[in-house]
Design goal:
Helix content is 72%, strand content 0%. The protein is mostly helical and 478 residues long. Helix 11 (225-240) packs antiparallel against helix 23 (453-470). The longest helix is centred in the N-terminal third of the chain and has 34 residues, at 89-122.
Length: 478
């Protein structure tokens, strides 16, 4: 601990040593080229170390937000020192504020979506669906297809992570004596959820970022529907032959949705419509519509809470409340907000600020020139998907949006497809895959997924081909 304290105390001195004359930049320039500067190298090393710790989360059990939050502070602190030394104290501040605005829109948007998902979970919407599937009496192979189809179509609304966790709970309950069924079904769920999220702004963080940036309109994501189907369907067909044809034991689970569950679902749909309308017709950021939609849920929650107390002949009878209202504890909107994935939201802050800092230093300009101008956008956007399987699609997509290469809407659709679906190539390539490795520990593993990577890659390549074949006209629109 004493050694760590000493190191931290010397950190400001170390950063001051890094501050020196920036190459090819005078004191009156607003942007300094720091790519060959010690601060630039320092920022790269800090980011790489932080992301290695993120990738090792399953081993270290340290939340992924911690290293990137620290890395963001160190990178921007180093940048600010250099700019202050060159009499440009406000340039770094303005760039930092720009990145904060990017993050604020994303965070508030996701916070509302997470709150609605938590409210539906609290009203037993997902548990009711799970119970019906578990006791449906279908064979393992039919359940393999049903969970895949549901993952594909729920993901565009409820996001790929929530969808994957829900469907994994179903296959875990059904496959207690069939570990092979659980493993293959989890792979199918991950591929389907990632593919389904690619053709909707609400399906994945990457599609949401592209929509919020204003590059593609809400309805312009839908041409990716058939390529997304191809991405999931090809590996699913191959994997289905390995699924047992037997039927799980019969069961009888009686779970009913709590009072107001259907209204919460309807309000979520209304919230999505509000966000789309605000963006398309009023030219307001989608987050404005989402925050308005949060008010819908808050007002309905107030109604649930008031009626929960007032019914029951003037006094609160728990048994009567359970029978008439569907639950004992009153609905509390702020409990649903508190249950949001705060580690994920803090992780997004760290990633956006780290990548924004590297872009401000000048590294993303170099990368953009090499990949998008020298190698070409098709090669670059295809590689984005492969890189997403190794690192994470969020920093990769944010880097692309920060570089903002000039390319057709067809190419923007391509990078949206590859960034979302490319994470399926490896189990660690998406939030859905990482989450299921924890939920189905011992059944769904890295090497179990790797066994099916060739057919998943076949679907990945076929979906890109389908996009070029079906959406040719989009490559002429800028």
């Amino acid at each position: 601990m004493k050694c760590l304290t000493t190191t931290l105390s010397l950190l400001p001195l170390f950063l001051l040593i890094l501050v020196g004359p920036a190459s090819a930049a005078g004191p009156m320039e607003l942007n300094l080229d720091l790519t060959g500067h010690l601060v630039g190298f320092f920022a790269l090393v800090v980011f790489v170390i932080a992301y290695l710790l993120v990738m090792a989360e399953e081993v270290t059990h340290m939340r992924k937000s911690k290293p990137v939050l620290l890395a963001a502070g160190l990178i921007w602190g180093a940048i600010a020192l250099v700019y202050a030394a060159h009499d440009l104290p406000h340039a770094a501040e303005q760039a930092f504020r720009h990145n904060i605005l990017e993050y604020a829109e994303l965070m508030l948007f996701l916070l509302v979506a997470m709150t609605y998902i938590n409210a539906m979970e609290e009203r037993l919407v997902f548990e009711t669906l799970r119970a019906k599937l578990v006791c449906s009496g279908m064979s393992y192979r039919k359940l393999f297809w049903v969970t895949g189809v549901l993952s594909f179509f729920i993901s565009p609304v409820a996001d790929n992570l929530t969808t994957a966790l829900l469907m994994c709970a179903v296959v875990m309950a059904l496959g207690k004596n069939q570990p092979k069924f659980i493993g293959i079904s989890c792979i199918n769920i991950v591929v389907a959820a990632n593919a389904g999220g690619a053709f909707s702004p609400f399906g994945d963080i990457t599609t949401l970022m592209v929509w919020q940036k204003g590059i593609l309109a809400f309805q312009e994501f839908f041409p990716l529907f058939i390529p997304s189907v191809v991405n999931w369907l090809i590996p699913a067909i191959f994997m289905s032959f390995a699924v047992p044809v037997s039927t799980p034991p019969a069961c009888d689970i009686n779970i009913q949705m709590k009072r107001g569950g259907k209204v919460v679902m309807a309000l979520f749909g209304l919230t999505i419509a509000t966000a789309v309308s605000f963006h398309n017709f009023l030219n307001l950021p989608p987050v404005a519509g989402m925050m308005t939609g949060l008010a819908y849920l808050q007002i309905f929650g107030f109604y649930l809470k008031k009626t929960h107390i007032t019914k029951g002949a003037g006094r609160f009878d728990p048994e009567k409340a359970k029978e008439v209202l569907g639950d004992i504890a009153p609905f509390d909107i702020f409990k649903n907000i508190a249950r949001s994935e705060w580690d994920t939201l803090m992780f997004f802050y760290g990633v956006i600020l780290c990548v924004g800092g590297l872009g401000f230093i000048g590294y993303l300009t170099f990368v953009s020139h090499f990949f998008y101008e020298v190698m070409g956008p098709t090669f670059a956007n295809t590689m984005v998907g492969i890189l997403s399987a190794i690192v994470d699609n969020i920093p990769v997509m944010f880097a692309v949006l920060t570089m903002l290469p000039e390319m057709s809407k067809g190419q923007w659709l391509l990078v949206t497809l590859t960034a979302g679906a490319g994470g399926s190539l490896l189990s660690i390539g998406s939030a859905a895959g990482v989450a299921l490795m924890g939920q189905a520990r011992g059944y769904y593993t890295f090497f179990g997924h790797l066994k099916w990577t060739p057919v998943i890659a076949l679907g990945y390549g076929a979906s890109i081909y389908a996009h070029f074949l079906l959406n040719d006209r989009w490559f002429q629109i800028y």
